[in-house]
Amino acid sequence: PAAPPAERYARSAASHAEAKRYMPGGVNSPVRAYRAVGREPVTIRSGAGAWVTDVDGNRYVDYVGSYGPLILGHAAPQVLAAVGEAMRNGTTFGMPTEAETRLARTVVDAVPGVDVVRFVNSGTEAAMSALRLARAATGGHRVIKCIGCYHGHTDAMLVSAGSAATSLGVPSSPGVPAAVAASTLLVPFNDLDAVERAMATHRGEIACMAVEPIAGNMGLVPPAPGYLQGLRALCDRFGVPLLFDEVMTGFRVDHGCAQGLYGVTPDLTCLGKVVGGGLPCAAYGGREELMRQVAPDGPVYQAGTLSGNPLAMAAGQAQLDALAADGFAAYRRLEAASARLEEGLRGLAADAGCPLTTTRVGSMLGVFFVEEDGSPVRDYADATAQSTRRYAAFFGAMLDAGVILAPAAFECWFVSTAHDDEAIEHTLAAAGPAFAAAAAT
Ligand code: PMP
């Protein structure tokens, strides 16, 4: 591919050079450093609706969407107004506020598996806390986890080992104690037999079966028909709590989250991203008798100085209220825009002779540069069989044409209600040549 035009990115390059002096990789979350796509990151100045602007003044249609929270787009007026109003009354108290109860009620009313909820500050914290609760409630120390699913970077969950079938976990990072990693049992996504074997082999030792009901951290991999129902049945048979990590899917795919969409109710649920309206906020919740074991109602300790923060509560409430308005019209708009985007991309890839598989649930879209056009992507093995070189070429061409995607092949695209016809048309105009560049790589 052609070298990126240096003058277009001059100020970002200078900014990133300085950032690297003070922060690992110059970033506060690794993917932002663009290492997987062989480019230098652009430094962002501002966002509005579907668009972001970098420090050089380049504008981009944005499908990163801060990795999921921004379902109304950047700087959504309802969210800004709510945060502004909350802010004038003080930023944090460490004492109860009515805003927490209001958002908690909204969550409990919307999410079938959540009777009681606790707000925390990140998805990592939600998964960590839900796992502790599951361990306390069952006495089991093991967690069953799908290869390629991400539940934040808490030790027991930072295990995904790309390797075969059910096996004892190997840590994905130095610093995770081997003993902790070994308590994590790995199964391929969409494979019920592997779950059954793990449950039968480790009867009485399993704290929970954790899964992203729609896998969004290996690209987008939807559950096969019957998979979630099958997990529910296995969990019931073996007496294992079912944990849906809906940090990404919660309030994105439906007001009732993935569990509402597929009609499968878990025992425990993690939420994040959309529920916090773009401020640091996440939550875990579940069945009454489980959640009453959390302190101070019960002995399972978990706390947070900034948990239930008034600004985050206001942002989350404003965003969820906007999504619910007019009979949940936002979800129908998201579906229409995302379907148009997916169709357009498929057609352009075919025209460019670039083999492609797309996957989609509502406004979450997966684009895989597979070997054979349309070959199915059901699990991590399928997802990682795609060409990351082609993705890198595609990514670079899109960036240079004013469309910003996640800088790694294994993230999904997030469409917002602000992605209007103009934004989608701009995206598709860029994608034709970008698929040609990918096909030539
Ligand atoms: N669970 C899932 C399903 C996620 O997608 C993520 C973040 N991408 C997390 C947990 C971790 O959330 P956070 O980055 O807020 O810690």
TrEMBL record:
Catalytic activity: (S)-4-amino-5-oxopentanoate = 5-aminolevulinate
Cofactors required: pyridoxal 5'-phosphate
PROSITE patterns (UniProt xref): AA_TRANSFER_CLASS_3
GO process terms (BP): protoporphyrinogen IX biosynthetic process
GO molecular function annotation: glutamate-1-semialdehyde 2,1-aminomutase activity; pyridoxal phosphate binding; transaminase activity
Keywords: Cytoplasm, Isomerase, Porphyrin biosynthesis, Pyridoxal phosphate
Alphabetical list of SUPFAM superfamilies matching this protein: PLP-dependent transferases
Pfam family, one: Aminotran_3
Pathway: Porphyrin-containing compound metabolism; protoporphyrin-IX biosynthesis; 5-aminolevulinate from L-glutamyl-tRNA(Glu): step 2/2
Compartmental location: Cytoplasm
One GO cellular component, as annotated: cytoplasm
InterPro entries, per the entry: 4pyrrol_synth_GluAld_NH2Trfase (IPR004639), Aminotrans_3 (IPR005814), Aminotrans_3_PPA_site (IPR049704), PyrdxlP-dep_Trfase (IPR015424), PyrdxlP-dep_Trfase_major (IPR015421), PyrdxlP-dep_Trfase_small (IPR015422)
N6-(pyridoxal phosphate)lysine: residues bearing it: 273
HAMAP family, A to Z: HemL_aminotrans_3 (MF_00375)
Record's subunit section: Homodimer.
Family: Belongs to the class-III pyridoxal-phosphate-dependent aminotransferase family. HemL subfamily.
Protein name (database record): Glutamate-1-semialdehyde 2,1-aminomutase
Gene that encodes the chain: hemL
